[in-house]
Design goal:
The structure holds two protein chains of two kinds. Chain A is an all-alpha fold. Chain A is built from nine helices and two strands. Chain A has a two-stranded antiparallel sheet. Helices cover 28% and strands 23% of the residues of chain B. Chain B has six helices and ten strands; from the N terminus they run αααββαββαββαββββ. In chain B, a hairpin with a 5-residue loop joins strand 3 and strand 4. In chain B, 36% of the residues are buried. Classes of the chains: A mainly alpha, B alpha+beta.
Chain lengths: 251, 245
């Protein structure tokens, strides 16, 4: 398809097939991926300065914890039981964390607004579009659990389990992670106290933020495994160029 | 090159020019309304600038949460060791009667206050949360003189934009903008939980910036400099200058 000479014919659309993923979905997907990796990495660095968790408003090394992570800390006064202190990387980590958080917020905003306008959510992610019945739902879940290769339709559409998972990630996990992140900001909480009080306090927000990020990492791992099972090159190409193996190519 | 590409090129060029001049205008306006932090440059500048600008617009009149007495932390937040230095030990031996807070820079009347002079100002007591960037948090009742009382006593000049404050701990200082310096909950703290401020908590005098992380609440404050620019002050560590997060 690639042609070295430019002509009017090339500028006009030559294919009638719509791309597998719209250009907005493709761009926001990869920007989000870069941000999530940056957030997870910097989040871990920030976390190791105090790998203890509490519930309520307050908590410190001098109060009992809800649970401790079985890892050393990057600050000497946290008694983790390990004989050594990890390197303290909070400087760049905090900067990277908040910068990536801003970028992922804007990216998410573009994605959600464009998804509403283009009916991306209604057509591609709401379970109704998958032709759901209770029977197919259980079949889908069972197939998914067996890590079975998706049927050919899967190249062009999502099944119910995929739809529900993506909706959960987009409309529950990401918003709650942002919420609990903002709830740890002393300045924002001075304007919107409910950010912290609704989730049970400053330390509860921190603890929930941690569990949400664990769930997001879990999603990321399963997502990559499923893409691999479905045909890594083809799915990767679909998310980069928008093109995928055509329907006729499918067995 | 055909007409389609040329038109596209011109449109893109115009859009880019409009975007760039729009950004330049926005930057000038933002600077005029005090929305640009001193550390706006560099790789992480955009993030910290967005945070600072949005907080300055949102938090103009907001007060940090205050808590009921029952929520005051029972335990200190760490095994607090007394601060050791020759100067500090001498002041401590004298019961801190020689402890002074110097206020200088862009003020009409530079003054050095003793602790008892600071205590004669109208005081404020508040039960607020101290949040550390490490992740822990701690609630106490703090008593002190609001910084704006001290600043109005020395009469800051109209061009003042920041207050730099120094700790007796070597090479340790920080600074805040006038929005936080004049905020009613920004205190020069000398009392905690109904007692003198313990030395482990920065006694006899520390700053408390209630709406920012703990690293802005410097202990053992002995010097304030009011200034219109932070250029001559080195940046303190890698951390974001604004810590409202």
């Amino acid at each position: 398809m690639a042609n070295s000479t430019l002509s009017l014919a090339d500028a006009a659309p030559v294919t009638t097939d719509a791309p597998r993923h719209s250009v907005v979905v493709r761009i926001t997907h990869w920007v989000t991926m870069v941000c999530v990796l940056a957030l997870v990495l910097s989040g871990i660095e920030i976390l190791i300065s105090h790998p203890r968790f509490y519930w309520g408003e307050t908590g410190s090394v001098m109060t009992p914890s809800l649970f401790d992570l079985p890892i050393p800390a990057s600050r000497p006064w946290v008694n983790t039981g390990y004989g050594f202190v990890l390197s303290d990387q909070n400087g760049w980590s905090r900067n990277l964390h908040f910068e990536a958080a801003w970028i992922v917020m804007f990216t998410g905003l573009v994605y959600v607004i464009s998804g509403l306008r283009s009916r991306h959510f209604r057509n591609n992610l709401l379970p109704a579009g998958a032709g759901t019945s209770r029977r197919t739902l259980w079949k889908d879940i069972a197939n998914q659990l067996r890590l079975q290769r998706p049927d050919p339709v899967g190249t062009w559409s999502y099944n119910v389990v995929q739809r529900l998972t993506y909706l959960l990630v987009i409309f529950v996990l990401f918003p709650l992670t942002i919420w609990t992140g903002l709830a740890m900001s002393p300045a924002l909480v001075s304007v919107f106290p409910f950010l912290a009080t609704v989730v049970g306090g400053h330390q509860s927000a921190r603890t929930i933020h941690f569990f949400l990020s664990v769930l997001l990492v879990l999603f990321l791992v399963i997502h990559i495994v499923m893409v691999y099972r479905a045909g890594f090159r083809n799915r990767l190409r679909a998310m980069i160029t928008g093109r995928t193996a055509s329907r006729e190519d499918q067995p | 090159m055909n007409g389609f590409s040329r038109r596209k090129l011109i449109t893109t060029g115009l859009a880019a020019t409009a975007g760039a001049s729009g950004l330049a205008v926005a930057a000038r306006l933002a600077d005029r309304y005090g929305l640009i932090p001193p550390d706006y440059g560099g790789l992480y500048g955009p993030g910290t600038t967005l945070t600072y600008a949005s907080h300055r617009l949102l938090t103009r009149h907001s007060l940090a949460r205050e808590f009921p007495r029952s929520q005051i932390s029972k335990a200190p937040f760490a095994k607090l060791r007394p601060f050791k230095s020759e100067v500090f030990d001498r002041l401590r031996a004298g019961g801190f009667v020689d402890y002074r807070l110097e206020v200088e820079g862009m003020v009409a009347r530079p003054v050095s206050f003793s602790l008892s002079e600071l205590k004669s100002f109208p005081s404020r007591t508040q039960i607020t949360q101290l949040v550390c960037e490490e992740g822990w948090s701690f609630i106490a009742e703090w008593t002190g003189v609001p910084l704006f009382n001290v600043l109005s006593a020395v009469k800051t000049l109209p061009q003042a934009r920041y207050v730099v404050y120094y700790s007796l701990q070597p090479r340790w200082w920080h600074s805040i903008d006038m929005a936080d310096a004049l905020h009613p909950q920004t205190l020069l703290v000398y009392g905690m939980n109904g007692d003198e401020l313990p030395m482990g908590h920065g006694g006899p005098l520390r700053l408390q910036v209630a709406r920012q992380l703990g690293y802005k609440s410097v202990k053992f404050i002995y010097r304030l400099i009011v200034t219109d620019s932070l250029k001559q002050f080195n940046k303190q560590g890698d951390y974001s200058w604004y810590a409202g997060i």
